[in-house]
Write a structure and sequence with these properties.
Elements (H helix, E strand, L loop, with lengths): L13 E5 L32 H13 L4 E5 L9 H9 L6 E6 L4 H11 L3 E5 L5 H8 L5 H14 L5 E6 L8 H8 L5 E6 L17 H11 L2 E4 L9 E5 L5 E5 L12 E4 L4 E3 L8 E2 L1 H5 L4 H13 L5 H4 L2 H6 L5 H4 L2
Parallel strand pairs: 1-2, 1-10, 2-3, 3-4, 4-5, 5-6, 6-9
Antiparallel strand pairs: 7-8, 8-9, 10-11, 11-12
Helix pairs in contact: 1-2, 1-9, 2-3, 3-5
Length: about 325
């Protein structure tokens, strides 16, 4: 099957696979404790797609044109024997990039096994170099150094180039932007600064809390001169900048102030087999029932084609105060970032 395109001519190129809706952090912008507390009911084991089911779906998406697979969560390293899934996906010959996004808490102990299983790279979330700020944001008292240990272990295992994601929220951690940039300058790791987004309905998002990409670049520019550089590929979400002194590059993801819907090539698979065609989607399309009711590979191919071919999502381009407050949206912890 040739690469699918949607109603806006956007090809299918990336599949993000959530392997669990659970996380050991309670980041205030993603899984606030007020909602995801002790009484919250996460998906039961039998509701989750098995590794074999995920592999079948991934292969179908690859037949439809996907070339990049990213494992997400929740926190994907909480999924038992995750390296076995990596090993399955690494055997798909057409996959050009097999990656994983993690909060880094379990990365130090898992990095070597993930690399051995066939994982190419990791992206690690780190929202401040300041322990007080970072622990307040993850809301479980997890220290910065343990995340840095995970990044070091990943680099030593060869899971590089490593990307470090920092979500910037006004009044919370914007003072950490230059510190994070400074720490990773010259390391070969790429920091990507992300505008605080209205994903889901539980994080209390307000436009006033967004530090724009323009502001972030200005903060860094004042300390370390940078210049813009071209994207690596169509659909790259980050605007890229390099340090003029050759100390590496950074990225800025501006889905609020400068949307990039027009080049979005990503589909998302939830841990229970729902396909979402937008990070801000309100509902998905169920593939688990098809898998468990004897659906063939041809049935899968047809289902994916029917989902992608009618896709018209461009939420970030049409975002208004009304769409933010009224439109229901799936939680980021459910389908990954």
């Amino acid at each position: 099957m040739s690469s699918l395109t949607d109603t806006l001519g956007r090809p299918l190129h990336d599949l993000r696979i959530s392997v669990t809706d659970r996380c050991n952090f309670r980041c205030t912008y993603c899984m606030p404790k007020e909602v995801f507390g002790r009484e919250y009911e996460f998906l039961a084991r039998e509701q989750l797609l098995s590794f074999e089911e995920i592999d079948r779906v991934a292969r179908a998406f690859v037949r439809a044109g996907a070339r990049k697979l990213r494992l997400t969560g929740g926190e994907p390293l909480l999924r038992k024997n995750i390296e076995d899934l990596v090993s399955l996906l690494a055997r798909i010959p057409e996959v050009e990039d097999l990656t994983l996004t993690t909060n880094g808490s379990l990365l130090a102990r898992k990095a070597e096994a993930l690399k051995a299983a066939g994982l190419n790279r990791v992206t690690v979330s780190l929202d401040s170099m300041d322990d007080t700020v970072f622990m307040a944001m993850n809301d479980v008292g997890f220290p910065v150094q343990k995340v840095l240990d995970g990044i070091e272990a990943a680099a030593a295992a060869g899971l590089s180039p490593i990307k470090v994601n920092m979500v910037v929220k006004r009044g919370v951690n914007e003072d950490s932007v230059v510190d994070v940039a400074s720490h990773f300058r010259g390391t070969g790791h790429v920091v990507r600064f992300i505008e605080y987004m209205d994903v889901g309905t539980t994080n209390g998002w307000r436009l006033d809390d967004v530090v724009s990409g323009r502001e972030i670049v200005q903060m860094i520019e004042a300390a370390f001169p940078v210049e813009p550089i071209d994207p690596d590929y169509r659909g790259e979400v980050a605007q890229r900048y390099r340090y003029l002194d050759g100390a590496g590059e950074i990225g800025v993801i501006t889905s609020v102030t400068q949307p990039f819907c027009g080049d979005c090539t990503r589909a998302r698979l939830s841990a229970e087999g729902q396909v979402y065609t937008c990070l801000f989607a309100g509902k998905g399309s169920d593939l688990r029932a098809l898998l468990r009711n004897g659906g063939t590979d041809e049935d899968l191919d047809q289902a994916i084609a029917s989902i992608w071919s009618v896709r018209a999502d461009r939420y970030s381009e049409i975002r208004t105060s009304q769409t933010v407050s009224i439109r229901p949206k799936v939680e980021m912890s459910y389908i990954g970032g």
